[in-house]
Design goal:
This is TetR/AcrR family transcriptional regulator. By secondary structure, the chain is mainly alpha-helical. It contains ten helices and no strands. The chain is 75% helix and 0% strand.
């Protein structure tokens, strides 16, 4: 049986931890916000972890405790957008008469990848190491693509031999091409060419 004094002591011991947890949550949110802002300015590859910590107003040790490497931090920054892509896939599959469902989803994927300069390269690297935090996120994207590709194949909208992995690779390539082009490049035009190539012959 817990005595009243024991309860008070337990409660007193728990209270000091709550502010520390709130501080940790605030620091984590500030780091994610700072990383997103720096990714916007210089891209994911050029953004230095120490610069992210400095912008967030925390020490490097705090950054490394929350995010042991840049891939983990990048996965956190883009996580909600990737979750939104999975949700969009579900909505498109649930809606009747969506002949352009796959094209709409791939266009959304390209918009996501081009959100930050260097993200296409980060995704290509993560896909080769699927056990990492960003690789795990990429696998979720590929699962959504698998359902959409199967849906499109059943309706004769794409080639029977098209795989979800190939489509995601093509979308990543389009994003990379748009990012690295010498002049302004419209990803929509590139996607039109991609879908012209994956339609059944």
């Amino acid at each position: 049986m817990v005595r009243e004094g024991d309860t008070a002591a337990a409660g007193g011991a728990a209270r000091p931890g709550a502010p520390r947890r709130r501080d940790a949550q605030r620091n984590r949110a500030r780091l994610v916000e700072a990383a997103s802002a720096l990714f916007d300015e210089v891209g994911t590859e050029a953004a230095a972890m120490n610069d992210i910590a400095r912008r967030a107003g925390v020490g490097p040790g705090t950054l490394w405790r929350h995010f042991p490497d840049k891939e983990t931090l990048t996965a956190e920054v883009v996580g909600q957008s990737l979750d939104d892509l999975a949700d969009l896939a579900g909505e498109l599959l649930a809606a009747p008469d969506q002949p352009d469902a796959l094209a709409r989803w791939v266009a959304a994927l390209v918009r996501h990848i081009t959100r930050y300069r260097g993200l296409a390269t980060s995704y290509a690297q993560a896909a080769r190491a699927a056990d990492g935090p960003l690789g795990a996120r990429c696998q979720a994207v590929e699962r959504a693509a698998t359902e959409l590709v199967a849906h499109a194949r059943e309706r004769g909208q794409v080639r029977a031999d098209l795989t979800a992995a190939e489509l995601v690779q093509l979308a990543t390539a389009v994003a990379w091409a748009a990012e690295t082009a010498a002049g302004p490049t419209d990803p929509t035009r590139l996607l039109d060419l991609v879908f012209d190539g994956v339609r059944p012959r």
